[in-house]
Amino acid sequence: MGPLGKMIVADLQDRRVGRVVAAVDASPEIAGKHLAEVVPGSDADVVIRKSVGEVKEVHSGVRSGIDCAIVTTASDLPSCKPLFLELLARGISVVSTCEELLFPWLRHDAMAREIDTVAHDNGARILGTGVNPGFLMDTLPVFASAVCRSVSNVTVYRVQDATSRRVPFQQKIGAGLTDDEFVRRVRAGTLRHVGLGESLHFIARYFDFRLERWDEKIGPVHADRDLTCALGEVPKGRVSGVKQVAHGWDIEDNCVISLHFQAAIGQQDPHDRVVIEGEPRLDLRVNGGVHGDIATSAIVVNCIAPLLEARPGLQTMATIPLVKWTAERM
Asked: Is the pLDDT of residue 99 over 60?
């Protein structure tokens, strides 16, 4: 029930895609409150619990049980795994914004197999998604290739003005830090766009690119003028954001995938772009870029129905039915 969780609850209500029957947040400032106190207009009977274990089965008319859980907690799979297994063991399907869940076989193959087994054995499904990773830098280029008879390489750009993004995202990109603080946080693993490697290997898997090697590099973006964001002032010369680049090479040493991610306060010319070299060549660009918070909430909600139509087990954005905008399902 952080900033993103609140957005998703409001989105579910506004579009009438589903009814929130339970909410969980371990924070003592939120746990114990009625959901309506946190998200106005929510079901007044729903109390935010401290743990999933406190959530009981829900029975309403001819429907019983919980159809799906939405998990918006951590970016790394090891942190989320206990919660995922707890939900799946109860037969509850899961849509999560955990970035490493997009393609968990890259860094956590054994965990991925365990999650798949528990989900399958309990008739549940689980999916990692989001705007990025989850769509713009992975699913979109794969889907766009449907009109290609050949593909030799893919380049994707996501350039964002993070001024209007939620506070946790601005913290994640290091807005306002000094260079020394930036380096320390990168070394500690607390500052980076999580999921770029997962996006790269997602593309490689579904394009059948056999990667011989890959790399990922990260560096700061500096403010070229005094800026202001939700975290406060960002003086000229301070870190305003992050730039990350990942490349993948095939066995013939051809660079077949290039991913470029840049998010900064006051970033000029924000855009999203997918370039597919093939027959035909495709060059798709979204001027202004896709708003990350709105889009993340939207894709999570839009994935619920397709996921529930898929077979039990660990799914990806390429193995569930086509995800599209949906509303008024209730």
From this structure: yes
From the list 183, 157, 163, the residue with the least C-alpha distance to 175 is 163
Neighbouring C-beta atoms of residue 18, cutoff 10 Å: 16
Helices (H), the chain: 3-15, 35-38, 77-89, 109-121, 139-144, 167-172, 179-188, 196-207, 292-309
Structure tokens at 33: 């409150």
Q: Is 185 helix (H, G, I), strand (E, B) or coil?
A: helix
pLDDT band at 62 (very low <50, low <70, confident <90, very high): very low
Report the C-alpha gap between 310 and 248 in whole angstroms.
Answer: 30
239's tokens: 């870190």
Pairing of the two strands 125-128 and 227-229: unpaired
- Average pLDDT of span 273-286: 98
Residue 93, both tokens: 């399907």
Instruction: Report cis status (omega within 30 of 0) of the bond before 133.
Output: yes
Q: For residue 177, what are its two tokens? A: 């830090």
Count Cβ atoms below 10 Å from residue 199 Cβ, excluding itself.
29
Query: In sequence order, what are the beta bridge partners of 241?
Result: 221, 264
- Judge contact between 112 and 204, C-beta under 8 A: no
